[in-house]
Design brief:
GO molecular function: transmembrane signaling receptor activity
Order of helices and strands: HHHHHHHHHHH
Distance between the termini: 54 Å
Number of domains: 2
Oligomer: single chain
Shape: globular
InterPro entries: LIMR, LMBR1-like_membr_prot
Helix content: over 70%
Protein name: LMBR1 protein
Keywords: Membrane, Transmembrane, Transmembrane helix
Family: Belongs to the LIMR family.
């Protein structure tokens, strides 16, 4: 549990890394000679990026595998059962896993870049293999974000609609609550009249009663909500989500045009002037604030989209019903998504802040066709998801009309 908590802390650090760097750059531009912010410099920012990369590697390849293998271990046969035996088995499994992964990475790098340097790099684990391995994980994370984020952007409207109180237009909440109350009482009477031996019917009625109580709670919450909460907050949040989504797609479209005419728009293009030397946005601090809002919005959307996928639907943590293995899986998934967030933000042109540390050494970021395809796919898939979301009601009515 402690290792999982540490992994989530590293994930939070990876998410905050790019926003903190953008804010630091604008602060240094606004107060270049202020004595109280001399500690905020390029060396500190570079160090934080390197630490984020280091701890991400540590969690992905050491701590989380150790936690998983330790949970599954029982100790080798013939040894006395206990913590020591389980730790020994876990360490052996980690060593075997490390050898397997390094072998796969060495073969992959030799196939992709078949020269003497690639073969000799077997002796240079720290400078080549860990960054290369992290580059592969980052690429998979970016592909996962490409799948999750467009779905999450369309699902955000549904999620916020469930959390907020919708306007009551031509609805009589008192009548609905009265009907639900009668239904609840009827179910309660049926449940009290059933014999405890009829287990299947009892469980079915209890589940139905729970659903009715949940619906009644939602209706009572809508009734108690103030007028401004019902009629102002919900439309304002929906409009805000729509604006943020539109700006995100617009920035990606502009980035596609920049990629076609300017090679410095590549994520691994020409290095910028450095931290505190030039603004990253044409709108100064306002533009930087907008970039930060969009980065957080994309991260939240990616998490929503991740748990909306059918394959990962069972990963959703539930109170008092989540195994430790599922917690480890959630932590690893969140870490992969958060580590790939700075790379995705730079690749899509959400921000112009240059990737620092090992994040800027990913070879695939210099491939024009990969970067352009990533931008095109994101724009197309996001647009299709939004069109499908907002036209679903119309399509359902058409299908009903056509029989």
């Amino acid at each position: 549990l402690c290792l999982s908590t540490f992994t989530l802390a590293v994930s939070a650090g990876a998410v905050l890394l790019l926003p903190f760097s953008i804010v630091s750059n604008e602060i240094l531009l606004s107060f270049p000679h202020n004595y109280y912010i001399q500690w905020l410099n390029g060396s500190l920012i570079h160090g934080l990026w390197n630490l984020a990369s280091l701890f991400s590697n540590l969690c992905l390849f050491v701590l989380m595998p150790f936690a998983f293998f330790f949970l599954e271990s029982e100790g080798f046969a013939g040894l006395k059962k206990g913590i020591r035996a389980r730790i020994l088995e876990t360490l052996v499994m980690l060593i075997l896993l490390a050898l397997l992964i390094l072998g796969i990475v060495w073969v992959a790098s030799a196939l992709i870049d078949n020269d003497a340097a690639s073969m000799e790099s077997l002796y240079d684990l720290w400078e080549f293999y860990l960054p290369y391995l992290y580059s592969c994980i980052s690429l998979m994370g970016c592909l996962l974000l490409l799948l999750c984020t467009p779905i999450g952007l369309s699902r955000m409207f549904t999620v916020m609609g469930r959390l907020l109180v919708k306007p009551t237009i031509l609805e009589d909440l008192d009548e609905q609550i009265y009907i639900i109350t009668l239904e609840e009482e009827a179910l309660q009477r049926r449940l009290n009249g059933l014999s405890s031996s009829v287990e299947y019917n009892v469980m079915e009625l209890e589940q139905e009663l729970e659903n009715v109580k949940t619906l009644k709670t939602k209706l009572e919450r809508r009734k108690k909500a103030s007028a401004w909460e019902r009629n102002l907050v919900y439309p304002a949040v929906m409009v805000l989500l729509l604006i943020e989504t539109f700006i995100s797609v617009l920035l990606v479209a502009c980035n596609i045009l920049c990629l076609l005419v300017d090679e410095t728009a590549m994520p691994k293009g020409t290095r910028g002037p450095g931290i505190g030397n030039a603004s990253l946005s044409a709108f100064g601090f306002v533009g930087a604030a907008l970039e930060i809002i969009l980065i957080f919005y994309l991260m939240v959307s990616s998490v929503v989209g991740f748990y909306s996928l059918r394959f990962f639907g069972n990963f959703i943590p539930k109170k008092d019903d989540t195994t430790m293995t599922k917690i480890i899986g959630n932590c690893v998934s969140i870490l992969v998504l958060s580590s790939a967030l700075p790379v995705m933000s730079r690749t899509l042109g959400i921000t112009r802040f240059d990737l620092l540390g090992d994040f800027g050494r990913f070879n695939w970021l210099g491939n024009f066709y990969i970067v352009l395809s990533y931008n095109l796919l994101f724009a197309i898939v996001t647009t299709l998801c939004l069109v499908r979301k907002f036209t679903s009601a119309v399509r359902e009515e058409l299908f009903k009309a056509l029989g």
